[in-house]
Amino acid sequence: MTETLLDVRDLSVRFDTDDGAVHAVDRMSLTLEPRQVLGIVGESGCGKSVTALSILGLLPKTATVTGSVNFDGTELLGASKSHLRKVRGRQISFVFQEPMTSLNPVFRIGRQVDEVIQEHMNVSKREARARALELLDLVHIPDPARRLDEYPHQLSGGMRQRVMIAMALACDPKILIADEPTTALDVTIQAGILDLLREVRERLGTAIVLITHNLGVVADLADRVVVMYAGRKAEEAPVHELFAHPQHPYTIGLLGAVPRAGAARNGRLQEIPGRVPSLAELPGHCAFADRCPRADEQSWSEVPELREVRRDHAVACFHPGEQ
Amino acid sequence: MSDGSQPVLEVEGLVKHFTIGRGVANSGRVVHAVDGVSFSIAPGEVLGLVGESGSGKTTVGYCVNRLYEPTAGTIRLDGADITHLSRRGLRPHRRRMHIVFQDPYSSLNPRMTCGQIVGEPIRLHGLARRSALEGRVVELFDSVGLRPELRFRYPHELSGGQRQRVGLARALSVNPSLLIADEPVSALDVSVQASVLNLMRDLRSELGFSCLFISHDLATVEYLCDRVAVMYLGKIVEVAPREELFARPKHPYTQALLSAALEPDPDLQRTRSRVVLEGDIPSPIEPPSGCRFRTRCPLEHESAPRSTDEEPPLVDVTGRGHLVACHLVRRGSEAPRLVEPSPELAGAPDR
Amino acid sequence: MSLLIVVGAILAAVFAEWVAPYPPEETDFEALLASPSREHLLGTDDLGRDTLSRIIWGARASIQAGFFATVLAMAVAVPIGLIAGYYRGWLDTVIARVTDVLLAFPFLILAVGLAAILGPSLLNATLALGIAAIPPLIRIARGETLALREEDYVRAAVANGANDAVIIGRHILPNMTSTLLVQATLTIPAAIIGEAVLSFLGLGVQPPTPSWGVMLNAAQPYLNEAPSLAVYPGLAIVIVALAFNLLGDGLRDVLDPKTER
After folding, report:
1. Number of domains, chain C
2. Is the residue at A49 inside a domain?
């Protein structure tokens, strides 16, 4: 057994809204090993971002979080604010989707990077600036000294995302949580960011939680993949296993629904009928039943539990199997 | 596809410049959104227009549909020059082209029922009234896979996929010969995209309209289009029939774009080599002189200094409709290869 | 709650003859400057007129002024704003600049100036208030039009071959009605206060006809002996104006087609 860096057990998140309770995440369990890239895949509203935010207690007050989040031997759920602040940014840091809004438009890049460094490390201004230069160089921003004197709007989307990654790496965190880090970027820019994340993992040994809706991103970078649907884990397996032997009809559907190279010759895209369910009205049966070709009486009456159907390959479905 | 019959759409030397910053400080700055684009679409053909943000692909679509006033160039729809027709003069031609927008949320009037939205073009063109109109709307709902009862609902009561179907039904309501589709699925969830793409494919073979399909996603374009045009910074850099383009991309930018596209297959994705382009797309306010791609081209050293002084023309390099705008791609000689395409992706003709 | 007050005020104004316990100009010389009593629930003024009745009758002038001034302002401002925002060009530039200049004058100053030119009467006060309320409404209508013009469904209507009347009438105007209605409920109280100010200054309703502003004016000399003479009409103005403002906020939520009802 390798050591576990992050161990999330039975994490549930409920939002109490005016229209009743919304179960954003239901009994999610995750483990992350050092240097591992864990991909969490799902469509909008499946709870993947909420899962990530709840790890660091970043959810608004309307959220009720239960379960356990164990990081490096300490429990983060219910931990004091000061403890969480020590972990945030220093041990576990975040990179968000929108590099446009994550940087404050009225301050120079340098000031924002310096600030992050000084917040977490006891260093002088000069040392902070030196570290900032080093970081920008690490994320391959050309001419970093000049960039530090620029404002966010003078940088392209790709450059801004690199700055965000640099800031996230300021304190050599053990875990980097990247929420749709390339979604807002163009294809040719996206490739560069993925290469950068790969390099971060290799050179710094940072473990990465990669949250995305894009199966291609996961195929490119992840070691292990969790597929989420309607707030629950639908399937989990090592990346090659998952893509080669998908078991959950939803995973199979997703894989068949994306056009890929050679699309013209591959025949018709597989459709998943219906729509993603609303988390406010989750049924008491398999949440995928109404869209599933395999659904039967059992699917319509019970919620399937996660079980291991192949080696190191778990599925929450009554009728797993390829095709 | 092209059997010598008249093209549905002919675009020649289309230019669209926007002037920004009318203030004192930066007056007269011009965004070269589209700078001399020419292409044509044959009856029943689907032309894919691919490019990254800032390439001008959406602007081309809006100009063709005359939602923007072109700065220069000619647009001919079914042979008729519509480039500078007035709103009134354009009205009879509106029946022959329609557009589907990217955002299923802002493209439908929230104060009209879905049935009214779909029926509006029919009403405006006086094609049907009352019960005939109603019947036609029901028929259209049926053809885009929506339950006819949904026509009494308001757009906000529908899901993204359903809204996009309403948008499609509206566009097809007057039987246009040209459909302009501007990223019609990119705002939708992955599991919903497939059904809309399949629907477009079915409707196209059923109704036989031509389509200008604008997208940033190569795989989607490959799935739907007969011919593909690749845009970079306001210009078309390469046009070719689908199989030809994906199997033998010639322009370095097309090659980079193809190699950077992500494949949902870890074995394939991790073994293929990709070209990561240096730098960012230059600003369309001051596009580079000569070849617009030269600032990011991995082969720039080979074509310099010609690339700086001279703009490469878009020429047919195979004699079979494969047009490339690159100094390094010449007729009769092999195009430079940035990466070896992996055999699974290239789709060798004998497969 | 705010709706109740607004409806109540309007009903009181319309049916003043029946609601008010006394005619507004009837004097009771037995009770000059009387405190509240069973006969005169809110007391009487220096001429022995019943304060409650005068407030009820005064609502008529206030609400009339508030309502018609707003209708007038809307009727003028919305078409101008629509045309400016939709067609742009030099006309828009001219309209926008003129609006900016007029907006530099506070609403009340503008209304007072106009009322002074037009001469004192309720009709002229209403006209003055209506005209003074036009510039901000033009700006709002124009701004909304500019924003809506860029919506894809408006583009789609252009692609449909719709003419300008259809685009403005079916696609732009209906989508700004909620904003306009909310704006109207904010303009009405401003005009009610404006009417009170004009009447107070002698530029609006002429005594002895009751109006809240006239009553405030008449109460001035007696502020020490009978402060209630000023307090009650003042309260009436505050309560009705506040009710309209709150109603505007409520309407905003109700009228949004995206919120489920």
Report:
1. 1
2. no
**B261 interfaces chain C, CB cutoff of 8 Å:** no
B200 DSSP 8-state letter: H
Fill in the DSSP letter of residue B263: P
What tokens were used for C126? 């209403």
The reported pTM is 0.85
- How confident is the prediction along chain A (323 residues), in pLDDT tens digits per residue? 468 899 999 999 998 887 788 888 989 999 999 999 999 999 888 888 899 888 888 888 888 999 999 998 889 888 888 888 888 888 999 888 775 667 888 888 888 888 888 888 888 888 889 999 999 988 888 888 888 888 888 888 888 888 989 988 888 899 999 998 888 788 888 888 899 999 999 999 999 999 999 999 999 999 999 999 999 999 999 999 999 999 999 999 999 888 887 766 677 888 888 877 877 777 888 989 888 888 888 889 888 999 999 999 999 999 998 87
Residues of chain C contacting residue B89, judged by C-beta atoms under 8 Å apart? none
d(CA B136, CA A75): 62
Tokens 């009494």 -> residue: B152
Of the candidates B88, B101, B124, which has its C-beta nearest C152's C-beta? Answer: B101
Using N-to-C axis directions, what is the helix angle for B160-172 and B114-124, rounded to 10°?
Answer: 10
Question: Cα Rg for chain B, rounded, in angstroms?
Answer: 21
Which tokens go with A148?
Answer: 């530090």
Domain that holds residue A269: 223-323
Neighbours of chain B (3+ CB pairs under 8 A): A, C
Q: Does A249 touch chain B (CB under 8 A)?
A: no
ipTM score for this prediction = 0.84
Q: Is residue C22 included in any domain, yes or no?
A: no
Q: Is A86 a domain residue? A: no
Does A112 fall in a domain? no
Q: Is B285 helix (H, G, I), strand (E, B) or coil?
A: coil
On whether the CB atoms of residues C76 and C48 are closer than 8 A, the answer is no
Burial of A113 (0-12, 13-18, 19+ CB in 10 A): buried
* CA–CA dist B70, B74 (Å, integer): 8
Print the domain residue range for C202: 2-14+44-255
Any domain includes A252: yes
Q: At what angle do helices C51-87 and C212-219 cross, to 10 degrees?
A: 130
SS3 B223: helix
The pair of structure tokens assigned to B235 is 């210009």
Q: Domain containing C205 — which CATH number?
A: 1.10.3720.10
Residue C181 inside a domain? The answer is yes
Mutate to test the interface with B, among A147, A185, A258 (most CBs of B within 10 A): A258
Contact between chains at B91 and C153 (C-beta distance less than 8 A): no
The structural domain count of chain A equals 1
Q: With an 8 Å Cβ cutoff, is A253 touching chain B?
A: yes
In contact, B36 and B20? CB cutoff 8 Å: no
CA distance A26 to B131: 50
